[in-house]
Design a protein that fits this description.
By secondary structure, the protein is mainly alpha-helical. It has one domain (25-175): Four Helix Bundle (Hemerythrin (Met), subunit A) (Up-down Bundle). It contains seven helices and no strands. The radius of gyration is 15 Å and the shape is globular. 40% of the residues are buried.
């Protein structure tokens, strides 16, 4: 599993877009917007269903909690980088081989929030992350050497995973929903 792909063990519900999405902020954001719209459409059709057994949550709202948590991590990485400090990547107290525990913690933080609250939080965090991506220097966004703390990944590749590709994972989890 690569650091930029928090759910790479999951197969996307829809095909991953071509490499153009990974080389332009505008294309990356357009892909993220479309994938979020698909996720929200699918989720709104079954807000009370259970989710796939291999997900750390139990309800559709937990998928939103998971995604909001990753958005907050992404924004935190950018804030730390702007302060010229090395971000905790993936998160403070977690290594990449502890993703199951991190994902469970992200969901657990919002276990008492209802569907509407988490849906609103997701659309807001999506807006914040896409604004942060828009604010990046385009050349540096897709340069794998621009941020040493990302290893051999570019910030744009990580944004792609936290946005559009992660929303496709959410649709996959919804596709495996069971009736309430």
């Amino acid at each position: 599993m690569s650091p930029s792909d928090p759910d790479s063990a999951q197969t996307p519900a829809t095909p991953v877009p071509d490499t153009a999405v990974r080389s332009s902020a505008a294309a990356l954001i357009a892909d993220a917007d479309a994938a979020l719209a698909e996720l929200l459409h699918e989720a709104d059709a079954r807000p009370d269903h259970a989710v796939a057994d291999d997900f750390s949550g139990t309800r559709v709202a937990d998928i939103f909690a998971h995604l909001v948590g990753w958005h907050e991590l992404f924004l935190g990485w950018l804030a730390a980088d702007a302060r010229k400090t090395t971000p905790a990547f993936p998160a403070s107290g977690y290594e990449w081989d502890q993703l199951a525990e991190l994902n469970a913690a992200l969901v657990d933080r919002r276990k008492h929030d209802d569907y509407a609250t988490l849906r609103a939080a997701l659309t807001e965090s999506h807006s914040q992350v896409t604004a942060a991506v828009r604010a990046q220097n385009e050349e540096l966004l897709f340069n794998p050497d621009a941020h040493a703390w990302l290893g051999d990944e570019s910030l744009g590749a990580v944004a792609f995973e936290c946005l559009g590709n992660h929303y496709r994972w959410g649709v996959l989890m919804l596709g495996e929903c069971a009736a309430p």
